[in-house]
Design goal:
binds zinc ion; two-stranded antiparallel ribbon; about 210 residues; alpha/beta; Lysozyme-like
Length: about 210
């Protein structure tokens, strides 16, 4: 059977655009500050619009400022929001790209990680279609891992973290349904490049 991922390109990059991704350019981006450090962080997020509904096309509309705010009551609370991510991976594993990876996308907000603030300046944001607390599809992990590998070919990636790790207390995505160990094993990257495992709820009793 032929699937979309058989066509994963051997030469993935055309500038900061990935050839495997559906390209939908977002106006929500800017240049990375001249003083920015190396792009060494991949930030993993989750999103679905309306929350918990998949395949609606609304995330793509949000990231391109074409969402009809009156189409769903939930959108009242995010009316006018201008955000983006470099990539969005839908539930079928298909990757979409909104911002050139050389440029600054608007996914992290107020954030701090590996001793640096304003993570949008020097990170690449990948959104997984999903809902905090729920799991993700095997094909989404597959696409995520391939993207991470290709990104690491082009940028000096040293860290992969969730939005919840770079904006703790403010953000909860991708949430407990995301399997960090699975991503780590698939990539084969060292443990220290990933967020520390959460502390056990009950300390081990000896
Ligand atoms: Zn997020």
């Amino acid at each position: 059977m032929t699937t979309w991922d058989d066509a994963w390109p051997a030469t993935p990059w055309e500038g900061g655009w990935h050839r495997a991704a559906h390209r939908l350019e977002s106006p929500n981006h800017g240049v990375r500050p001249a003083a920015a450090q190396a792009i060494d962080l991949i930030v993993v997020h989750s999103i679905s619009l309306p929350p918990g509904e998949f395949g609606t096309g609304a995330v793509q509309q949000l990231f391109t400022n074409t969402l009809d705010w009156d189409a769903h009551p939930y959108y009242q609370g995010i009316r006018g929001l201008q955000v983006s991510a470099h990539f969005f991976i839908d539930r079928t594993g298909v990757p979409w790209q909104f911002v050139d990876c050389d440029l600054r996308a608007w996914h992290a907000g107020q954030s701090f990680y590996r001793g640096r603030a304003q993570c949008n300046d020097d990170s690449i944001g990948i959104e997984l279609e999903g809902l905090e607390g729920l799991g993700f599809e095997a094909v989404q992990y597959q696409t995520l891992a391939r993207l991470c590998q290709d990104i690491a070919q082009r940028y000096p990636i040293e860290h992969v973290a969730g939005h919840e790790h770079i904006a703790p207390g403010r953000k909860q995505d991708p949430g407990p349904g995301f399997d960090w160990a699975h991503l780590r094993r698939t990539l084969g990257w060292p443990r220290h490049q990933f967020p520390p495992a959460p502390l056990p709820a009950t300390p081990p009793f000896r």
